[in-house]
Amino acid sequence: MKFKINTLAKTTMPMMVTSIMLMSGGVAQASDLYPAQDDEVVIYYNRGTDNEAEYNGWGLHLWNGEGCTSTDLEKMGIGSGGTDWNDPYPVSGFSDTYGAYYVLNVDLDASDPHTCMNFILHKGDDKAFGSANQKVQLTELGETRGLFGFHGSSQLYYEPISERPIAIDGQKAHWLDRDTIAWEDAANAARVELRYSPRNRIELDEETNVITGGKSLMCRSQVN
C-alpha cells in the first residue's frame, strides 16, 4: 500500500511513521480457543470482523523444506510436495474472539527435529501477513499451541491476543519519492500519519494508547 503525504516537511529531521489501528490489545479468552493436542498447532487469523464470509478463499500454503520439516503433510491429506498454490489448506473453524483458525499436524518423527513449520496465509496472490514466508517456531508455542495474527500485519503472537495492539513501528516503511511512502504492514490501519520530532520526543502511553510529542502529517492511502 502507498500513502501520499499532503504536506511535506521542508527540513530534514528524524521522523517515524505511526499506524493508528482500529483497536488496542485485548484480553485473552481461553474458552474461545481450539483445544489443541500435543501433535497439533493452530494458526489464528483475525480480519477484525465477525462475518465468516470475509474469510472465504483464505487458506494456507504448506510445505516442508528450508530447514523446517515438522508439518505432517501425510496426516493432513497433503502430498509430499506440499499444497498447490491454487488449492490452499482450508480453514478448520471459527472463533468469535480470534477469527478463523487452521489446525495443523506436527510430524513427531520429523528430522528437524520439531523446530518449525512453513506456511503462507493467502488468497490468490494476496497475503495476509506480509510478503515474506512465515514459520511457526515450535519451541516458542505456549500452552494453547496457537499462533495469532491480524490481517495486514507481519507481527505474529504466541500468546492469545484478541485485538490488534496500538504501537509505534519503525523501519517498516519505504520512502519512494518526495510525497510517497510504501508500507505493506499498514494495510489494515484506520489512518496513517507521518510523525516527526527534531528532538526525538515521540512517545506512546501504553495505558491510554495516546501518541504524543512532535508534529504529524496526515497521509492518504492508495492501494496498488
UniProtKB/TrEMBL annotation:
Its keywords, alphabetically, are: Glycosidase, Hydrolase, Signal
Residue ranges of the Pullulanase N2 domain? 171-215
Identify a single GO molecular function assigned to this protein.
hydrolase activity, acting on glycosyl bonds
Q: Which family does it belong to?
A: Belongs to the glycosyl hydrolase 13 family.
What is this protein identified as? Putative pullulanase
Per the record, the GO terms for biological process are: carbohydrate metabolic process
Tell me which SUPFAM superfamilies the record gives. Answer: E set domains, Starch-binding domain-like
- Where does the record locate the signal sequence feature? 1-30
Q: Where is the Pullulanase carbohydrate-binding module domain?
A: 41-158
